[in-house]
Design brief:
This protein has 428 residues and is α/β, with parallel strands linked by helices. The chain contains 22 helices and seven strands. The chain has a five-stranded parallel β-sheet, with helices on both faces. Strand 2, helix 5 and strand 3 form a beta-alpha-beta unit. Helix 5 packs parallel to helix 6. It starts with 5 loop residues before the first helix and ends with a helix.
Length: 428
């Protein structure tokens, strides 16, 4: 039995062995083209855990044959950054160097502003090529000057096809697993628990291999996987990967109007040292996605929670999060706004850039007026109740209904008001 985890033993070293992310490393993928040209620009890899962010950075450095430095934003400070940059600057002036050194920063979203500022000069001067990895939206966590100098590439969870490829590779290419006898019956539970995370899948295989005596066949089926994970939850979560499972339980508890469970999962995150801003952002999203128009005040409170955390800090911020979570859990629920924008986006994707009806167009010039722009437009404030019926959608979509009111008092009132306005308009 090796002390090196399977995920590390099986880490790819070339793009040919890399699974998934075809949109950036496939035949015409931007990162593949960078490697082939030998000209690598700074970029940030954004995606969930276990999708190959660190691995891809190492492959880029290896295949371009440039010096590779790595820092973890969790353990590194400004001093560490400066020491690495000093070493990198010496590499730049080395006549044998094949290109700018790569500085890989894992969890770059955890760098504070001063730490990120310390990188700016080196990136601008070409001392290093920066590759960052983050599970958080860089728009929120990376300072604008740094973000403007680095392209952001989104990495996706592995689909079942990718997970199956990974499974086959582990059982045939890893010396330890390939030396065991396996009986593959079912993979549904394995793929479900992995959740698109390559590291999780490999950790589960590692656990199964270590739990079965060497002279016995390892049976891979849904029952075995489920029972093994229930008996050994620590092995399944050896790298703190419950992060996404717990936030999922937290969100689903609030969506399901269970304040007791919401506070429990919140406490789990607080006790585990979760970033308060991460929790607050999820509450803002939930306030719109799951409560929405049923209680518009929910978004106001969630946004106020986000702002208050910045002012109050920790540990008192936990009380603010608790208040918000309980309020959202007790609020009436509606996803009508969420469904409406998705339905409208679907229509846009299917119909393309439909022309704006002439009467709705702006007409700042005589030529535009002569062409019929703005002609026939009815100014709502000139009519009773500031409302008049007229066509606002393109002709091809004029009968479309994107927003369908949810079954709650607030949206019933909105629907009733619209119906009353239309009734008044038709009578006039």
């Amino acid at each position: 039995m090796s002390n090196i985890p399977l995920a590390e033993r099986l880490r790819p070293t070339t793009l040919e062995d890399y699974i998934g992310q075809d949109h950036i490393v496939g035949e015409n993928g931007i990162i593949r083209r960078m490697i082939e040209s030998g000209k690598v620009n700074s970029f940030i890899l954004w995606g969930p855990p276990g999708v190959g962010k660190t691995t891809l950075a190492k492959i880029v450095a290896s295949q371009t044959e440039v010096p590779f430095y790595t820092l973890s934003a969790v353990t590194s400070g400004v001093k560490d950054v400066r020491e690495i940059l000093d070493k990198a600057e010496k590499d730049v002036h080395n006549i044998f160097s094949k290109g700018r050194p790569i500085l890989f920063i894992d969890e770059i979203h955890r760098f504070n502003k001063s730490q990120q500022d310390s990188l700016l000069g080196a990136v601008e001067k070409g001392i290093v090529t920066l590759i960052g990895a983050t599970t958080e939206n860089p728009s929120f966590e990376v300072i604008r000057p740094l973000l403007s100098r680095a392209q952001v590439y989104t990495l996706k969870p592995l689909d079942d096809k990718g997970l199956e490829q990974l499974l086959n590779r582990a059982l045939t290419k890893d010396n330890i697993l390939a030396g065991r006898k396996w009986e593959i019956k079912q993979t549904d539970a394995l793929f479900r628990f992995a959740g698109g995370d390559a590291r999780k899948l490999l950790n589960i295989l590692d656990l199964l291999e270590q739990s079965v005596p060497e002279n016995e066949t390892i049976v891979l089926d849904d029952t075995t996987v489920t029972e093994s994970l229930q008996e050994n939850p620590a092995a399944y979560d050896r790298n703190g990967e419950m992060h996404y499972d717990i936030i999922s339980a937290f969100i689903k508890s609030i969506r399901g109007s269970d304040p007791q469970a919401a506070v429990y999962w919140l406490a789990r995150m607080v006790a585990g040292g979760e970033d308060p801003k991460f929790i607050a952002r999820r509450l803002v999203i939930l306030a719109s996605e799951d409560i929405g128009l049923a209680n518009p005040n929910a978004l106001l409170l969630a946004n106020a929670t986000f702002d208050a955390l910045a002012k109050i800090g920790w540990p008192e911020g936990r009380i603010i999060l608790s208040e918000c979570a309980i309020y959202l859990a007790n609020s009436p629920k509606s996803n009508s706004a969420y469904l409406a924008i998705d339905a409208a986006l679907d229509a846009v994707n299917k119909t393309g850039n439909l022309p704006v009806p002439l009467h709705l167009r702006n007409a700042p010039t005589k030529l535009m007026k002569d062409m019929g722009y703005h002609k026939g437009y009815k100014y709502a404030h000139d009519y009773a109740e500031n409302f008049v019926e007229q066509q606002y959608l393109p002709d091809e979509l004029k009968e479309s209904v994107f927003w369908k009111p949810g079954a709650n008092p607030q949206e019933f009132k909105m629907q009733e008001r619209l119906q009353n306005l239309k009734s008044i308009s038709n009578k006039s």
